Amino acid sequence: MERERRAKHYLMDMDGVIYRGSKMIPGADRFVKRLKKLGRKFLFLTNSSESTPVELQRKLSAMGIEVEAEAFYTSALATAAFLHAQKPQGKAFIIGERGLEDALSEVGYTITEKDPDYVILGQKRNYDSYQFATAIRLINKGVLFIATNPDVTGPFDEGIMPACGSVAALLEKATGRTPYFIGKPNPLIMRKALRTLDVHSTETAIIGDRMDTDIVAGMESGMETILVLTGVTNRENLINYPYRPDFIFNSIADIDP
Fold first, then answer.
1. What is the Cα–Cα distance from 128 to 125, expressed in whole angstroms?
2. Are 20 and 231 in contact (CB under 8 A)?
């Protein structure tokens, strides 16, 4: 690319950027080591709500990437912060994994299907029909509907799999109610990420594999945007978007921080 790189600090997506499913993308460990050596500030910013920061830390450690648990910010944490600000000590029926459960519990939320204030949909390894039926019943009764992120697909070892946005569409079709999405590209999670790093958007880049979440979020936040082609986006489907990233790399390993 002929354009001059200007960013000093980085927000990085994870699945499709650092790893794909359970396998590290070759060279991702070297990139993170370069950031640490250069003293760059960085934060792993993921729309996944499945895992806690400690679980993500352990996953990267097993791949040879050593970082603190504070280096992770998830859509589950962003959802918990949003709900705490909106209705402290509330109640929620959730469809999700431990990452979402722990995040809500830490802000004092009660997880229940009895008279909840919110129905919260997150990413889950195995969805079941009882949870869908309960969510539909509650939403139809007027319970507020939140989803952790709008990603319709995500990369895994063997290819692409449905993600939270696809399941949200199912519940929306069944209830006629559209959820409020917390994760990227919502400005709420972007502002929180920048405050966490204590950096300004003009000196920060976002590295991601999705045009509709990572790149549009960075663009609308005034960041430098870097698309990598190791996840769900390839050069052929770039024509589907009316905006472009500042830079495109085959892999995070090709980026010089």
1. 10
2. yes
Sole residue written with tokens 């996953």: 59
Extract the tokens encoding 141: 């009764």
Q: Spell out the residues 6+ positions from residue 195 whose beta carbon is closer than 8 angstroms to its own.
A: none
Question: Residue 15: helix, strand or coil by DSSP?
Answer: strand
With a cut of 70, say whether residue 156 has pLDDT above it.
no
> Is 72 within 8 Å of 57 (Cβ atoms)?
yes
Using DSSP bridges, classify how beta strands 144-147 and 180-181 pair: parallel, antiparallel or unpaired.
Answer: parallel
Q: What is the DSSP letter of 5?
A: P
pTM (2 d.p.): 0.94
User: How far apart (Å, rounded) are the C-alpha atoms in residues 163 and 20?
Assistant: 14
Sign of the Cα pseudo-torsion (184, 186, 187, 193, in order): negative
- In whole numbers, what is the pLDDT of the chain averaged over residues? 94
Cis peptide before 187 (omega within 30 of 0): no
DSSP readout, 29-62? HHHHHHHHHHT--EEEEES--SS-HHHHHHHHHH
Domains of the chain from N-terminus onward: 9-47+184-254 (3.40.50.1000), 86-181 (3.40.50.1000)
Q: Identify the CA nearest to 15 among candidates 51, 40, 42, 41.
A: 51
Confidence at 161, pLDDT banded by 50, 70, 90? confident
Could you tell me if 78 and 192 are in contact, meaning their C-beta atoms sit under 8 angstroms apart? yes
What positions carry a catalytic annotation? 13, 15
